[in-house]
Design brief:
The protein is mainly α. Helix 2 packs antiparallel against helix 3. It has helices at residues 7-24, 32-58, 63-89, 98-103, 107-131. The chain is globular, with a radius of gyration of 19 Å. The protein has 5 helices and no strands.
Length: 141
Amino acid sequence: MRTDVTWKGLLTVIFTGLAYIAFAYVPIACPKMVYGIGGVVMTVMFVFIMYNATQARDALIGEGARLKDLRIMGYFYLMMAAYNLCPLIGVKAFALQPEKMIEYGLQADAASFAFHVLIELVIGWVLIGMSYYRFGCEKAE
């Protein structure tokens, strides 16, 4: 079991944790542009992760390649869940503006998008979990 902790790693966890708490639990009015920027960042990171994951997969054979494939598929479903949050909370179902959702009769659409997001999250996490099943976790060399 690997127990060495670097200051860089520890500071990264602390910084991201504090940033998460600052934005997740503080009620703030968020301009719509932030959602667009977040969507672009997620898309760029998804492409980056997929490119690097497929490059790393090419070096694997047998069971290792199959486990990497499961992880890649899991990442895809998590990205699709993030993608379907846009129409759920945005201009398709107006989940952030329930008065518009009711006015336009979009409750069924909102429920459908919420169900899609749930299914994609479940499938994504199951596939990623399965990708670790064989070894329990990746071991340091």
